[in-house]
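Incident log, entry 3
Record: NAD(P)/FAD-dependent oxidoreductase (402 residues)
Problem: checksum mismatch between cached and fresh output.
Input:
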Amino acid sequence: MTQKIVIAGSGFAGFWAAVSAMRAIALAGKTGAIEVTMVSPTPNVTIRPRLYEAVLENMNPDISSQLAAVGVHHLAGLVEQVDTASQSLVVQQADGQKITLGYDRFVLATGSRLFVPAVPGFAEYGFNVDTLESAQRLDTHLKTLTNKAETPARNSVVVVGGGLTGLESATEMPMRLRAILGSQADIRVVIVDTAPEVGAGMGTEPAAVIQQALAECGVESRAGVRVTAIDADGVTLSSGERIAANTVILAAGMRAHPLTAQIPGERDGSGRVIGDAFLRAPAAAGVFVTGDTVKAATDDCGNYNLMSCQHAMSLGRVAGHNAAAELTGLPLHPYSQPKYVTCLDLGPWGALYTEGWERQIRFTRQEGKKIKQEINTQWIYPPAPDRDALFAVANPDFVIVP
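Fresh output:
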């Protein structure tokens, strides 16, 4: 009887989980005996780390040919319910019909969603770059600002959140606005963060570099404050300051996909399931959690994966391999990702490249920018639809070394 592995999600983790599972099945000589099905609305990988950019071309590459090359079946739909007791899923198909899928192993790779604080006006007036659709909505909004009378609010953007996405969005924005409104426009971009200093989460030395980059890009900082209200014409801060702006971009962090709540077991503050060394959900037999849905140790020094494509790609490879390994008798592969780097795009200033969890600065400005461009345009994209090439990268030991 054919056994079934079902993978929910076609992002970085879901894609590599599917390819890695097929690789393990082929290594075990079980091709045809185990089916791998990916469930997602469309067979695409959204290049989420690039959605802060002004040009949104090729941000959602089709992976149909890659899946076909390795023998993965794609089912257009969304997993709505997970019943770990009966090992079954309820899937809302793209055609509106609901079906039930049984599984022998299930890999949850549905990623994360933007965290929207309970602040009046965020849902109605805020923009974000969390999905391709929301990034396109922001782009359309910015381009239609020329239809408004010139006012300080029209020419101003407030970015809420000083993490990587917020910093990348903010430093890109002055140049982006001038391209739309004209080089002579009086542009204002403000980044707001609750941390004592914008960029403080990166560490003391990187924060100093970030402050320099913000200043050179013409971005104002408001640290140690939060947004208390937002409307069509601006934001109010906890300090009492009012900033006039027709554009407010929310980048206040992420939370794991709601499906994690249907997986028994312990979760962290972001809703991620606490996985074991093999990325299994300890309280749910046959379930693997990966990408942004799992919290797992990256090393023996107390570090854990972040919600990033850097970790998601490796997590996906390991989860997919182990899901297949349990069915084929291959050895399971423990997750380990001790090498950690950060490459932060800082607009025309360049980029900041650090290594290690202590974030030691290695490259800045144009040297860092070159690495960032390679990451964004080459390393994170799916390889060509060649079975052997895909299997080579799907090895759970595979590591990209800058």
